[in-house]
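Lecture 7 notes: from sequence to structure.
We start with the chain below.
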Amino acid sequence: MTEFITTNLNYFAYAMMVIGAILIILALFFMLKGRRRRK
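Predicted structure tokens for the same chain:
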């Protein structure tokens, strides 16, 4: 049971890292797009 919980926490942490990276990339992409539109 403890092994099951630890593996789930590892997968959850990995998923959070991936989601965070995707959000950062999208934010940077929209920022660059907005700057280009303003100019």
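Points to note: Residues 11 and 17 are 10 Å apart (CA to CA). Helices lie at 2-38.
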